[in-house]
Design a protein that fits this description.
2 copies of one chain form a homodimer. Chain A is 73% helix and 0% strand. In chain A, α8 runs antiparallel to α10. The longest helix of chain A is centred in the first third of the chain and has 28 residues. Chains A, B: InterPro entries: Ferritin-like (IPR012347), Ferritin-like_SF (IPR009078), Ferritin_actino (IPR059125).
Chain lengths: 248, 248
């Protein structure tokens, strides 16, 4: 397992954010609030992977060639295997996976409904953006987790990055017709805006999860810290889009 | 590897159908017609799996619960892995997988377009019927293949049967409302009719493949034998539907 370094601009250690990291699940889960937060986290990630599977498989229909179709199908299948691992872990810790996922269904479904790609390139950008944001989020959250849960999250993270093929295709399309870049830049902004809006909805509704995300304590969390995390993820997104030739 | 018994009503051995079975790929593929037939077969199976992946993933959207959705997604993912194995084998024997699949795209796409399920139960019946027909076909063809190709086909076959969960669900729905049985019986007939019609199109267009399917020789094949194979597969389908409570 790789060791994850804490981001430079991590929140203050006032709420002892590293104490849980030194514990295993058996010890950390004695705290009911921590337990609830992890169930929320795994439920949110699991449904996110299942929803991603479904959308990538659907977007594969837009592929111009069989090879492209197979690439997107491969990503979809990888997301499904992430889903399986997260779901199995939920069952292992004695939670009904469906119940853990239910609270997050509306947010993901809204996101995907609002961001159905209208062509293959939009589908590729969405696959790449989604994959990257998921990686960033896994990294942010890993350092706040007990050793067992962190192991799972990092294992799933290690297995992402299937979207790199998308980068090459998008670059080639922009080279061939620079106007495509402008359209896709708007699209990438819309994706990020919709992702943030759905995330904020989840944060507002799921106290235990939000508290853990910012390394908070049981009696409340600092909304400003959640905002900072979103800012870091948005900045990373903006840099990636610029590198891709899409001014965000 | 399991040993596959030859069906009781297998075609006559007039065209030495077992001679290839005793050979490995290196030896058998010296015959250009046999080679072309295997490339066709693997191409047809590969695109069939990729198309099945796509449709099952899409049909997962009709699932009434997250558990059901996950079950169909699991089948879809299994089909994708079959696709990968078949595609990799095509590359291994020096064929461009896309080229091998292309001749079969129209038939599969037409089949799926004509048989888009309108609800979850139709989706389940389609998953079960599709999985079963695929197994029957793999079994029919296995005995006519060289040892290496047979090994691959049997390995993919061993890994099917994900649709058994569908049986339970369909039974329960018919128990709850017997009228559902009548509707689904019509649907199953339509599925089989459409599958046969597309298969016959393929048989008419792909001589080398068709010749091999009936254990024929290089200078032609017996159309009656193809018909017998279709009849065996249709009969097995009818029995399965009856067992499921669907009078075909």
């Amino acid at each position: 397992m790789r060791f994850m370094t804490t981001p430079d601009n991590a929140p203050d250690a006032s709420a002892e954010p590293t104490s849980v990291a030194a514990q295993d699940w058996a010890k950390a889960s004695v705290d009911p609030q921590y337990r609830a937060a992890v169930v929320d986290l795994l439920g949110a990630l699991a449904y996110g992977e299942l929803a991603a599977f479904e959308r990538l498989a659907e977007d594969a229909k837009l592929a111009p060639t069989l090879t492209d179709k197979a690439e997107l199908a491969k990503m979809a299948s990888a997301e499904f295997h992430h889903f399986e691992r997260l779901r199995d872990r939920l069952a292992e810790i004695g939670t009904e996976p469906t119940e853990a996922m239910e609270p997050f269904v509306a947010a993901y479904d809204s996101f995907h409904r609002q961001t159905a790609p209208s062509d293959w390139l939009e589908g590729l950008v969405k696959a790449y953006v989604g994959d990257s944001i998921a990686s960033d989020f896994y990294r942010e959250v890993a350092s706040r987790l007990d050793a067992d849960t962190r192991g799972l999250v990092l294992a799933v993270l290690d297995d992402t990055g299937h979207a790199s093929f998308a980068v090459e295709k998008v670059r080639a399309a922009i080279d061939a017709d620079p106007r495509v870049g402008g359209r896709l830049a708007l699209w990438a902004r819309r994706l990020m805006g919709e992702a943030l809006s759905q995330s904020q909805r989840v944060v507002a509704e799921r106290d235990a999860l939000s508290t853990m995300l910012v390394g908070g304590v049981a009696d409340g969390f600092d909304l400003a810290e959640v905002g900072k995390m979103f800012t870091r993820i948005t900045e990373a997104h903006t840099k990636r889009m610029a590198a891709l030739g899409l001014a965000a």
